[in-house]
Amino acid sequence: RCHQRSVAMLDIPFPPFLAFLGSLGVLCVALVGAWCQHWRGGFSLDGTSRTFNWHPVLMVTGLVVLYGAAALVYRIPATWSGPKLPWKLLHGGLALAAFLLTVLGLAAVFSFHNSNGTPNMYSLHSWMGLATVLLFSCQWAAGFGAFLLPWAPAWLRQLYKPIHVFFGSTILLLSVASCVSGINEKLFFSLKNGTSQYKLLPAEAVFANTLGMLILLFGVLVVAALARPSWKRPDPDSLDSRQ
């Protein structure tokens, strides 16, 4: 009985959870923008560090928040009945928007590096980030071919669906890891002088570390929502649905 009560207390309805998660995503975007504006000099397209500042904002917005939103489309109860095509288009559209913002974010960091003679792709953060983007592009293209093109056979969709779901969660976790490692790398590069060394934990370090923890929390909550059985879209081909 106690176990049943504990499970019932943890059985949170999806809509309030989604509202909280959406607020957390907006907060992450707002905080990364505030960090770049207040401590890193703002935004520009002149090839200076202000061009680089578009990189963290676009990556967090696209690769984490919008990608997480796309992943949770089929957890919305309204998607469980009626035509599925509009929700497929929403899922694919959000993922495509996330991918486009991610490409712009990569363009910003490459432009900054090339303008300042900084080598590209030498850090673990850059390797992991580029691998995530390449995997993301393959995931979107494969999903488009399997689930949106009308001539994809049903057996192919059934075969590819669990693979698509697995890599969806994997890409989100890689995105979070890339963003958190990028924040840490930027702090190490920026906080060097005697009065604001990273190890002294100045205000910027506290702010950016908090941002990293919130991004991590967002990713963990999205993956937890994807894994929760009661929030999954019922499969019309399953035994329970037929019964």
Automatic annotation (TrEMBL):
Q: Which GO terms describe its molecular function?
A: metal ion binding; transmembrane ascorbate ferrireductase activity
Q: What class of enzyme is it?
A: translocase
Q: Which UniProt keywords apply?
A: Electron transport, Endosome, Glycoprotein, Heme, Iron, Lysosome, Membrane, Metal-binding, Oxidoreductase, Translocase, Transmembrane, Transmembrane helix, Transport
* Catalytic activity field: Fe(3+)(out) + L-ascorbate(in) = monodehydro-L-ascorbate radical(in) + Fe(2+)(out) + H(+)
The Gene Ontology CC terms held by the record are: late endosome membrane; lysosomal membrane
Q: Where in the cell is it found?
A: Late endosome membrane; Lysosome membrane
Q: What is its main location?
A: membrane
Q: Which InterPro entries does this chain map to?
A: CYB561/CYBRD1-like, Cyt_b561/ferric_Rdtase_TM
What are the TM regions of this chain, as residue ranges? 12-34, 54-77, 89-112, 124-151, 163-183, 203-227
* Membrane topology summary: Multi-pass membrane protein
Task: Tell me where in this chain the Cytochrome b561 domain is found.
Answer: 20-227
Q: Plastid as a keyword?
A: no
List, alphabetically, the Pfam families matched: Cytochrom_B561 (PF03188)
What domain of life does the UniProt record list for this protein's source? Eukaryota
Q: What is its EC number?
A: 7.2.1.3
Q: What does this protein do?
A: Transmembrane reductase that uses ascorbate as an electron donor in the cytoplasm and transfers electrons across membranes to reduce iron cations Fe(3+) into Fe(2+) in the lumen of the late endosome and lysosome. Reduced iron can then be extruded from the late endosome and lysosome to the cytoplasm by divalent metal-specific transporters. It is therefore most probably involved in endosomal and lysosomal cellular iron homeostasis.
Q: How does it assemble?
A: Homodimer.
Return the protein name: Lysosomal membrane ascorbate-dependent ferrireductase CYB561A3
Species per Swiss-Prot/TrEMBL record: Xiphorhynchus elegans
The major lineage groups are:
Eukaryota, Metazoa, Chordata, Craniata, Vertebrata
